[in-house]
Amino acid sequence: MPLRPTRLIALLVTIAALAIASLACGSEAPSRPPQTPEPQPATPSPTVSGEETETRPLSPSTTELAQATVQIWALSLVGDALEPVWTGSGSIISEDGLILTNAHVVDNRLGEYDRLAVAVLNRTDEPPEMSYLAEVASVDYALDLAVIRIVSDLDANPTVVHLPTVELGDSDDVEIGDHIRILGYPSIGGKTITFTDGVVSGYTSERGLSGRAWIKTDATIAGGNSGGMALNDQGKLIGVPTILGAGSDAQQFVDCRYVADTNRDGQINDLDSCVPVGGFINGLRPLNLATPLVQAAEAGEEYVGLLPVEPEPTGGFDTSQVIFHNLVFADGVTADDQPTQVWDALPSGVTRVCAFWDYEGMVDSMTWGALWFVDGQVNEEGSIIDNSWTGGDSGNWWVCIIDDGGLPDGLYEVVLSVEADVRRAGAAFVGGDHPLTEFTIVNESSGEICYALISPAGAQHWGEDDLGGEESIESGASRTWLLPAGTYDLMLQDCAEETLTEEYGLDLAQASVYTLTD
């Protein structure tokens, strides 16, 4: 059966393409590789304060930490010359040349490059110098994390290096509002290293991973910074900038989607107001997720990932068989990926709102997303944008929006998409007075009601068909639902999906009856 009609018909403007070349776009390669430099370790000098006689080390300065930030080049051999394919960033985590980065920065499953080169920094006001060749030591494409190892100079001669490093931190210690620093080599704004800073703005959970799957930030991080450093105030590495939302052509908004019929003409298109989603890279993979990759690389062992192995990218997916259904909301997730408790309306003070649904017809490596809206406004920190699917053909899945300090009261709405097509949407109240109340539809018209869409007012989408596609309200019959008390919108359609009526702002604070007539 076709998907039930929704206000959100399709995503007409999608996020900047996540093709590998655009994930980490860089400038042209140097015409001749310079002589290999030997940067000094980023070890700060001790200081003495006041009358103290004992010295103590300071946290590394941003300049010192920049020395441990590298630019990674994917190079293709064309004749006798190496030409750039893309660039990204990385963090040196051991003196002998282990570098933490994103998997997409070093992904060669389609054979798109021949050499992986590393450029190191001498001065922050100059471009880094391409100095070494590297190989992949461990990689997890589902997490988009990798560790590479420097193996030689640019002429493929084995080399021993003593490089500046960044100290590894504990990403579980990061709290909302904490200050973070970002270092990397963007694909826009010149060829030198770039520093930005901001605060931690939220977290996101992901099925198959315990704890934090993403750390969200309001820091502006341009493409090319992907794989670089996210540091706490102590100068310790706590995350890897990973989600890309822009390319070098980004103008006012990185991703502006037409997701609501704002002009009420019955269509969602460029005549509606768009919703800006994302600001360059706004997601950090927590460092703790990279720990097993680092350990495997250090030990020279094969890495086994936490999530299912992602197949090689193919593209061109057919989404016609994808079905999302049985969408419910809960206040948490059990150890076996089930709702802790299903709610019609969640109480004030909850720290998580989780959406659970069943699915069929999915294919691993499809692009999917979960946009969260709070009182009609997109919540970037809680949203998942253009992730790669790893859940197989069928089953159940979940996403959560999180605030350990307590989520604010309001209407929480999730919009689920696959390959930029919306497949399901639903909403739930948090806080307020929403006891269950009866709502009855009486059909006194001459026709049959086959679709009933009852949506909380303020939601951007109609949500699921409340008749479930398996029942109808015949002429002279009625149907009653139990709904959380509130204000709702209503759409009724016949079996040809022609609209019979649309009503907005229905007050369902107590038991109510709506009668459809000709």
Description of the structure:
The protein is mostly beta strands and 518 residues long. It is built from four helices and 31 strands. A six-stranded antiparallel barrel has the order 3-4-5-8-7-6. It has a six-stranded antiparallel barrel with strand order 10-11-12-17-14-13. A five-stranded mixed sheet has the order 19-25-24-21-22, with no helix packed on it. Strand 29 and strand 30 form a beta hairpin. 46% of the residues are buried. The N terminus is likely disordered.
Taking all Cα atoms into account, the compactness measure Rg is 26 Å
Distance between the termini: 27 Å
Helix content: under 10%
**How would you characterize the largest beta sheet?**
6 strands, antiparallel, barrel
Please tell me the overall pLDDT.
80
Indicate the overall shape: elongated
Structural class: mainly beta
Which stretches are poorly predicted, pLDDT < 50 over at least 5 residues? 1-57, 244-256, 276-280
Strands of the biggest beta sheet: in what spatial order?
Answer: 3-4-5-8-7-6
Number of helices: 4
The beta-strand count equals 31
- Please report which band the strand proportion falls in: under 5%, 5-15%, 15-25%, 25-35%, 35-45% or over 45%: 35-45%
Q: Could you give a quick summary of the protein structure above?
A:
The protein has 518 residues and is mainly beta. The protein has helices at residues 20-23, 62-66, 103-106, 291-299; strands spanning 46-47, 56-57, 69-78, 81-92, 98-101, 115-120, 129-140, 145-153, 167-168, 179-184, 194-204, 214-217, 229-231, 236-241, 256-257, 275-276, 283-286, 323-330, 345-346, 352-360, 367-374, 377-388, 395-402, 410-418, 421-430, 436-443, 451-456, 478-484, 486-493, 499-508, 512-516. The protein is built from 4 helices and 31 strands.
